[in-house]
Write a structure and sequence with these properties.
The chain is mostly beta strands. It is built from no helices and 15 strands. Strands 8, 10, 11, 12, 13 and 15 form a 6-stranded antiparallel sheet that branches. Strands 2, 3, 5, 6 and 7 form a 5-stranded antiparallel sheet that branches.
């Protein structure tokens, strides 16, 4: 069962689970997300209720994998660290930034995922941001590799979207894998005639779901 642990620093914070209609006390400083759905958080103290905040969790096989990046994101757009993009929590759907999006200025995205045990997978979905007026471009290419066998699993090029949020679903023949490499090639240098011409494009990635 997919799950993640979320550190809790506010002792007054309460949570409403997807299957509950009322808020509950948090009994630990770690909240385990193990039910798909929306979790609602709210600080309550002396009968005064604060503003509610909701997160949507969708568990997948990547949640408990160890992720290592060859190139770190830009410090301004580093989310909650590399684990942000496989934690099952979707970021903003109308803009980039925040705790879930990772932004790379000119760098490719190259990640190694180590699963605790070999997992059967047949689909990986990606979420990118497109804002060419802000120098943010979709990637050129995505490659998946089985590190232990040194064999390619899947590849896709010519990634296009007419929307600013680009969702890509990549399906392939089912395989059992323990160490997975995900390579996402940055667009590169922005061509002449476009805003930011001659500069390196940005690449923004949100959740990568592994099923």
């Amino acid at each position: 069962q997919a799950k993640i642990n979320v550190p809790i620093s506010d002792a007054n914070l309460k949570v409403k689970y997807p299957s509950h209609s009322e808020f509950s006390e948090l009994l630990d400083n770690l909240l385990t997300l193990d039910q798909d759905g929306t979790y609602v958080f709210c600080a309550q103290s002396d009968g005064i209720k604060g503003q509610e905040k909701a997160i949507k969790f969708e568990g997948h096989k990547g949640n408990n994998a160890k992720i290592t990046l060859a190139h770190l994101p830009h410090p301004k757009y580093s989310g909650n660290g590399p684990q942000s993009i496989i934690n099952g929590i979707e970021g903003f759907t109308d803009r980039y930034g925040g705790s879930e999006w990772l932004g790379f200025e000119g760098d490719d995205f190259e990640a190694t995922l180590n699963f605790k045990q070999a997992e059967e997978i047949s689909n990986i979905s990606f979420k990118f941001f497109k804002g060419e007026g802000q120098w943010i471009y979709l990637p050129k290419r995505i490659q998946l590799t089985d590190i232990d066998k040194n064999e390619p699993i899947a590849e896709v090029e010519n990634i296009k979207s007419s929307e600013k949020i680009a969702n890509l679903d990549l399906s392939f023949e089912k395989c059992k894998i323990q160490n997975l490499k995900i390579s996402i090639e940055n667009f590169g240098i922005i061509p002449e005639g476009r805003q930011g011409a001659g500069n390196a494009a940005w690449l923004f990635i949100d959740e990568i779901r592994i099923k």
